[in-house]
Amino acid sequence: MSSSRKHHLKSLMLSIAKGLLEEEEQEQQEERRRYMSESCPPLSMPRTMQELQEFCRELHHKVDVVDEERYDLEMKVNKANKEIDDLKIKVQDLMGKFKKPVLRKVRMSADAMLKALLGSKHTVNLDLRANLKQVKKEVKEEEKELRDVGDWRKNIEDKSGMDGRKKMFEAEA
After folding, report:
1. Please, what is the average pLDDT of the chain?
2. pLDDT for residue 139
3. How far is CA 105 from CA 69, 102, 108, in A?
C-alpha cells in the first residue's frame, strides 16, 4: 500500500471519528437538558412562611436523595477501578513484563523444605539415609597388611641383620 493511500485512509478515519464524537457530544447535551427539565422544574418562590418551610423540606429531601445516588455511584466507580487495577496486574503478570528476581542458592534439608512448604502440617520425617541398606565391607588381606605396617622405621630395624632375614623366611613359611 502506498504512503499516499495510507495517508488518505488515515484522514478518512479521523474525519469519521470526529463526526462521531460531535454527534455523541450533542446527544449528551440534549440528555442533560432533558434531565434538568425533569429533575428541576422552574422555580416558583412561595409567598407565605408555611409554603417556604414546605419548599425547604422538599429541597432537603431531594438533596438527600441525590446524595444517596452520588454515594452509590461513587462506590460502584471505586469498585470498578479496583477491579481494573487487579486486571491490569494480572495482564502484566501474564505478559511477563516484570523482572524476575535473581534467586539465591539456599542449602536446605528435605525436612526443612517440606516444613517450609507445608507449615505445621508436616509430621513425616524424611531421613533418606535411614532407608539405605547396610553393606558390609570385605577387607582384603593385602590392604590389611598395608594398613598394619605402621611405622616404617620399626619395620626396617626388625628386618636388618641376620635375625631380620631369618624372621622374614619364618613368616613366609
Report:
1. 80
2. 60
3. 57, 10, 9
